[in-house]
Amino acid sequence: MSPRRLPPALRLLPALGLLLAACSTPPEDSFVAPAQRAAAGEPAGVDAKGEACLAQRGNPLPADLPVAGVQEVFCGGWTSAAARVATLRGSTDAATLDQLAGGGLWRTWLDQRVTCAAPQATTIAGGYAARLLACTRKAGGWPHVAMVAAGPHGPVLADGVATSTPVMERLAAGQVTAAGAAQPRSAALELAVRRMAAESFSANDVSRFETLMAAGRDLNQLENFAAAEDAYRAALALQERVLGREDPNIVLPLLHLALNLAAQNRLDEAEVLFTRAEGLAPRAADETAVPRLAHYRGLAAQRAHKLEEAATHLREAEAGYAALLPSSMLGTSDSEVNLLADPTATTAAFGLAEVRRNLSRVLATTGHPAEAEAKIAESRRLLRQVGNAPGPMIARTLRTEGRNAASLGRNEAAARQLEAAARRFAVAAPGERPEAVTLFLSGGRRQATGRRSEALSAFRAGADILRARQLALPATMVLPYLDALEAEAAARPDQAEALRREMFAAAQLAQRSNTVRFVQQASARIGASGGDQRVSEAVRRLQDADQALRDLFAERDAAPSAAIDARIAEAQQARAEAESEVAAAAPGYRQLLLATADFNAVNAVLAPQEALVTMLLGRHSAWVLALRDGKVYSARASLGEAEAAGLVNAIRAGVIDQNGAPGRFDPAPAQALYNALLKPLEAALDGAETLVVVPDGPLLGIPFGLLLTGPVTDPNLGKAPFLIKRHGIVHVPSPQTLVTLRGTGAASSAPLAYGGFGDFSPPTPAQLLRSFPVDRCAADARLAQGLTRLPGTRREVLEVQHLLGAGPRDIRLGTEFTAAALRQADLGSRRILHLATHALLPGELSCLPEPSIVVSPPPGAPDANAAFVKASDLLGLKLNADLIILSACNTGGPSGAGGGEALSGLARAFFYAGARGLMVTHWAVNDDAAMLIVSDSMRRQQGGASSAAALRGAQRLILDEAGLRLPAEFGHPYYWAPFALIGDGKRAPQVNAAAAAAPRG
């Protein structure tokens, strides 16, 4: 067998383009191949904020003396240069320094971007003479620093953001080696890739294709899938320009890109690329393209937990790779085979070894242990035959063997194999995600064998890596760490408090909700701004630029074109400019965005009468941790994620039936969930006025106020012991979200109190049929015609308008409540925004894939399209609101069957747009109850109560008055419980919340 001859245009990727590197789930399923190393820069110490910096070779700068070299400095993960340092050839006497600082080519170049005060004579590190210039950026007015120094090898010119001054000094004085601080390779490569990728959509530089492919492989090996995506996306764009967008030989970067998207759970985006690859792979010069497509599809199916489909694809890939190998490699021989002269066979051999390892995991997971052992043994034998297998590939094989052994209950053997894998990763990928994952797996096995001390050592080493790299793990990997810490606390009472604080920090390593990312962006924007609207706007421009790029990339994946590439190039440039501005305006933004909060940080923002409860669900058990009065309390629950989801679904079914009416409420699930999660911590929570709840997984699907703290003994549910009677409740996606939202204490600075919208006018049947044609969307058309008017929302909005003293121009009702009215209402100037209308989540209308709110269509509209304001439209709003009231249907409800991530896309969109708090509804609301809750909450909030206390007071009012001044059925949770507070809203720690929440007499 001989490989096909590659066409001339493909010789830009000789053997390199024939090597595999994929990603999958579990993380060890990445296919690692040898790759050249991409230049990633050298350590340059830390900046004034303590963030590690890298120096890379930079572009030449204009200067009046010959330039010996230019370095650009990148700090704290920013991909825009924090500083530029140029070394010149020439004299370093005082006159030369004065001349360079006062005028000339460099100073003219500098003055184009910044305005500087007169140079001041000073010295820098090492005692070198220097001239310092205090400057201000012309774009944004942010501080900037420039200097001219007498370096050890000639004059040095430097400028950058203020926090980079220490790094500029060290580079100018040649002291980097002594002060250098290393960064993980993944972070360094990510930086290099972002810089290369930013240029790949505007240039035909095929010379960087190999560098991008190598960097993509390195990043994939390090399980940094987002950065690998950037590398492969840029490589694909370059290759498409050379070969054409329909050339079959672009399939290699296309498939790598698809798998790195799948590894981030972006499965729909990956499927678009797989579909493109199906038509290209059979015609590619690379004979491994077809089995590689099946291989990668199998890994994507594994990520989606479609294990039967995964096995089918992997067996197809196994046969395809085997057909490309000599028969001597398909038997039972261990003798080494020299494949150096046949790169196709080498690729096929590594691919076959990886497919069999991946298949082994699927088989072990689906209850076929004997076949799983056989497949991993075949994988090992192939690697021995090929010889010279990369270290990460051997480490992943050991890790798979360890996980298979663990699934069979062989904990001792599993621990040994996982520890061996961890040692391999410590050499092949030190300080990166693969090592951390393996350390946690080995810690779990040591904990299972009773070796707690060894388990804790492994967990702590892995946790250090995760925090340094700002990574998270599945909850099932983190729970054994909490088990070990609790056991250690029981054995060492003198260390119990410190160990439980460690438990609290460890639990945050399992943050898994997409909501966290959206909310953290919003809260980090608030925290970074410190109340400065200019800073907030700068950060928002960067976030918008990131969102715009992602949208363009998705558009390009479906239909690449030169026009889209041009738009991407412009968007890349806009993003670089936005990031440069934020790096100067708010250098701490990335730390806020990526950090997890420790005990001290969370404890510092809790008010005296507050408690925080965070939960972590595993397959068969859960941990609940509470912070109260400077102490951590812990409880282990025998409640798995599936059981929790079942209880949540049962609660919701008892609250609202399939017809949208009050259900037959069964108290048992609500009490069972309370007993499992909160009752063990009841003593610690007693007397707390506000409970800050951090739910996990399906627990996001209910408002916690309807949990029952005891049995129901009266048919009048208003007398039942609901949790809301004990505490006001705030729901947050993560403890860090709470810390950043409260970090500045800054409330909205918006000048207007209120903006209200309600009583929409529904689209006509004819308009709906044009938007939902019967041949494709008949069911949607019928459902959409059921979106009738909500006349009660008019009274609701008018009542709140009156309470808050707003004017007629602050509300839009009926036919005036349109999408255009929302855009024109200057929403950023309003502290409270109230939307009383229908809301739709994905799945309710299959032809409307985004969550949406329903508004009035504009007069004379040909169809109903303008009546649905989608989440992507809401992302574009610029808000500065303490509270958004989404008094609609299901705005907080589960976005898929069985719960899961229940905070809807609408809620996330509003957080992203700038809300500090959301009052959302978990199911369809009753008009009368909604008007009472919303208006009474606003009355209490106007009186000084916090949003949490105000909502609690309104809900207790309904419960207390049910059967008295209100109908008895209003005690049913259907009426009072749908509203929940997500995020802080308005805070009033100086007000006695219990008094503010007291029901009206």
Automatic annotation (TrEMBL):
Alphabetical UniProt keywords? Coiled coil, Signal
Q: Which residues cross the membrane?
A: none
Which SUPFAM superfamilies does this entry report, sorted A to Z?
A: TPR-like (SSF48452)
Enumerate the PROSITE patterns for this protein: PROKAR_LIPOPROTEIN (PS51257)
Coiled-coil segments on the chain, per record: 535-581
The CHAT domain covers which part of the protein? 668-984
| Signal sequence segment | 1-21
Name the UniProt record assigns to this protein: CHAT domain-containing protein
What organism is listed for this UniProt entry? Siccirubricoccus soli
